[in-house]
Every structure is written in C-alpha cells, then in structure tokens.
Specification:
about 290 residues, 4 domains, three-stranded antiparallel sheet, two-stranded antiparallel ribbon, 9 strands
C-alpha cells in the first residue's frame, strides 16, 4: 500500500471511529440541537424510536435514516468533538455569534505559579451562559465558528417574510410572488454585510428577562401537571435547575422565531415533552 492509500485508510478509520465514540459518549438532546438546529425535535424523536426497544445498533440505523445533507452535519459535529477515540474541542476561529468579532474572552483555569499559564477551559464545551465575553459587543455571548455563523445567517434570512425582505432590500415584491430577486440581493453580500443586516433587522440581542420568565413559568406549569415528584425519587432542587436550563435553551433555540407566525404553545409543549422524556430516561434505575 502506498503512503497516499495508507493515509486515506487512516483518515476514513478516524472519521468512523469519531462518529461511534461521539454517538456513544456525547450524543443527547443538546447535541442533537447543536447539529440540527430548530428542527432538532424531529430528529430526536427519530433517534428515540431507534432506542425504544434496544440501543444496540441505534447509531447505525439513525445514520442510514438521514439524508446525505443531514449525515454530513452529524459526522462533521462528531469529528469536531472527537478525533478517533480522543475527545477534543476545537476552539480555533471562534467568533461572537452576533457581531462575528474574534475578540472574545473565554473563562479558563490558569496556573498562578507559571505567570497565569492556561490550563483548561472552565467548561470545555463553551455552551453555558457566561462562558464567553465579546469585547466588541461588551456582553456575554455564544461563541461559534465562522462557518457555523454563516449557516445561521442563512437560516435567519430564509425565515424572513416578503414584507421584511422588501424593507431590507428596498425592492418591491415580484408580481408572481417569487423571492428570487431578494435572494439574489442576499447572495451578493459579503459575510460582514450579512452580519450587519441581521444586527439592523434581527431585533435586540440577548433574552429579555420578562420573556424568559414567561417561558420558565410555562415549563414549570407543564412539568407540575405531570407530577414528576410524586412518581419518581427526584431532588426538587435538581428539577428546578433543569427547568431553568430548559428555559434558557428554548430561548436560545427560538431567538429568531416569529411567534406571530408560529404556534408558541404547541412549540413549547413539544419542547418540554422531549426534555421531560429524556430527563426521566436518564434517572438512575432503582433495580
């Protein structure tokens, strides 16, 4: 086998190994949300259907049930987190998810005996509120790779209605109802121009405390109606902590959702149903 063939074989083996280690060690509803975004509930339900009777072979069945595009999203995430059987978190080229500035600070452990030498990040996943601070925005933000931010900007654009597209572009609606001329406008923009347009027309960044409180109240009501504390041995403080994190997750996931066009009650009910189902599934067995 020549060196090139050997390198190709090793690369394929690493990719496959990364996928299976990721699915066995890291895969959960939060990872599903990171991979598939707003549509993650559909994919989580699909995954759950493969593990209802047995988890054996679920990773293979789940992979083959996906389209080529969604397989690529999943494998790319797996190889971002794992290199073969070694866990890794790639933090190079991270930028602010709102302004795209690379001038972000990350909470980390340092060694005071070695001039503050870096040891490790306080949270290796960098996915908790307060992990990263943007010096450009002057606020705590979510870090994201520039490539993923480009996808997020495209999703944001795809969610705009005709009236919003008309306002942003200054172009009148097409007589046939087509949005091709709006998309042509968007496709000609540079990355920085797209970032600026989302800042100008995407609404204020961050989560309003009143909105978050409303979501948390709705989650608490839904969880309370299921009487989990009566059915299972659960630490009430742990459950409250979970509900708070679910509220934050919901707000982050739907920060661009137009609730005038989407059913909020249906969406939050479906969201909490999946969260509670996974929470119960993860409870320690009493056997």
């Amino acid at each position: 086998m020549n060196p090139k063939q050997n390198q190709m074989k090793t690369g394929i083996q690493t990719i496959v190994s990364s996928y299976f280690y990721y699915m066995s060690s890291m895969w959960d509803d939060k990872e599903c949300e990171k991979v598939f975004g707003n549509n993650y509930l559909h994919f989580w339900q699909k995954w759950d259907s493969f593990t209802t009777q047995t988890a054996h072979g679920a990773a293979e069945r789940f992979y083959f049930s996906l389209t080529e595009h969604n397989r690529k999203l999943l494998v790319e995430r797996a190889n971002k987190v794992y290199c073969g059987n070694s866990n890794r978190i790639q933090t190079e080229n991270l930028v602010c998810n709102w302004c795209a500035s690379p001038n972000i600070l990350v909470k980390a452990w340092v060694n005071p005996d070695f001039n503050g030498a870096f040891v490790e990040y306080c949270n290796a996943e960098l996915d908790k509120e307060g992990d990263c601070y943007c010096n450009a925005c002057k606020r705590y933000v979510e870090p994201i790779t520039q490539g993923n931010l480009q996808h997020e900007l495209q999703e944001w654009w795809n969610m705009r209605d005709v009236s919003a597209l008309e306002e942003i572009t200054g172009l009148p609606p097409a007589t046939d109802g087509s949005t091709d001329h709006y998309n042509a406008f968007w496709n000609k923009l540079s990355f920085s121009e797209r970032v600026k347009i989302r800042q100008d027309y995407g609404g204020p960044i961050g989560i309003k405390s009143s909105d978050r409180d409303e979501v948390l109240a709705d989650i608490a009501y839904s969880v309370g109606a299921q009487h989990l504390l009566d059915q299972f041995e659960i630490d009430s403080r742990e459950l409250v902590g979970k509900m708070v994190s679910w509220a934050d997750s919901f707000m982050s996931l739907h920060r661009y959702t137009d609730w005038d066009k989407n059913d909020y009650i249906f969406t939050v009910d479906a969201f909490i149903e999946q969260k509670v189902k996974q929470f119960i599934k993860d409870l320690p067995s009493l056997d």
